Please model this.
Amino acid sequence: LAAPLRMMCEYAKANWENKTYELQPKEGGGWNASSWFAQAKPELKKKNALINLPYILHNGAVISQTDACMMYLGALFKLNGGNTTDCLQLACEVMDLRNSAVRLFYGSSATFEDSLQKHANGTVQRHYSKLEEWLKAKKTTFLLGETPTVPDFHLWEMIDQHEILAKANKIDSFLKDYPCLSRQYKAFRSLKELEGYFSGALYKELPLNNKSASFGATVIS
Model:
């Protein structure tokens, strides 16, 4: 959830600090998340009762919830394309795709293969088709123009995760029937502003998902 926020900060050349919280294995199975729930969250909750991951600390304020964090940075870095309504519409659409992917990634490993087929043949096509049609109508490289805006950062992360998912499971690229999304994906990856991000540890050394996931719990090369 934090990757789009990190990319936005890098793209804007902001002075920022990354913060992560690591799960630790429990005796007998499961995971201990006390580094977040017991150590960090209580103090942050004093400033924002809605606190969750991810969050932003800026000028004394605590901002939480993924879309709110993205829109906050979009306003701060002027990445909303002059249209906050379209930004939010698109951010919500990408979040719908993410929520479906999370159900796959964190579902039972015993049913992963069946769930993957349903996700690939139904969910992904439904969301990709909508976003493909949006780009066709706009006639632009990115969702709101020729430079990336708030939803492009989250969309790129989700496309990238699905391309990694396809490769790891030896299935066709999810982009094969979506030329506009493919163009967005390639153009975003080629942004000079993000060269350092893509060559660095935040992209190369962090896994796609948390340690409790059925897919992406470790770095996939």
Q: What stands out?
A: The chain has a mean pLDDT of 96.
